[in-house]
Amino acid sequence: MTGNYSEEMSAVKSDLQTLKTDLTKLTNSVKADAQANASELRDNAKTKFKAAQNNAMEAGTKGRKKAQVTIKNNPIVSIAATAGLGLLVGALMARR
């Protein structure tokens, strides 16, 4: 009866050691996958941020050029619009 017990304990110890080894391998694999995914996500985010930044710069440049052309073509209207906007802002500031 003790021989059986010793054999079973030995088998359980062996199984536990195998389980420990498998868990270590699985943990390392999950860690490597997570790092790879994080790196890929970071690279994608950087690419999208740079694209958005370039789009914003282009839109700002186009808007500025369009405003310059409009002011150059209609200087009186531009001065009147600026004066009106100034009066409106002044009136709103005076109310506070």
How would you describe this structure to a colleague?
There is one protein chain. With 96 residues, the protein is mostly helical. The chain has one domain. 97% of the residues lie in helices and 0% in strands. The chain contains 2 helices and no strands. Helix 1 (2-73) crosses helix 2 (75-95). The longest helix has 72 residues, at 2-73. The termini are far apart. The mean pLDDT is 91.
Keywords summarizing the entry:
single chain; 96 residues; mainly alpha; 2 helices
Element string (H = helix, E = strand): HH
* Helix-strand makeup class: mainly alpha
Overall pLDDT metric: 91
Q: Give the proportion of residues in helices.
A: over 70%
- Inertia-based shape: rod-shaped
Briefly, what is this?
With about 100 residues, the chain is an all-alpha fold. The protein has one domain.
Chart the SSEs and their pairings:
Blueprint (H helix, E strand, L loop, with lengths): L1 H72 L1 H21 L1
Helix pairs in contact: 1-2
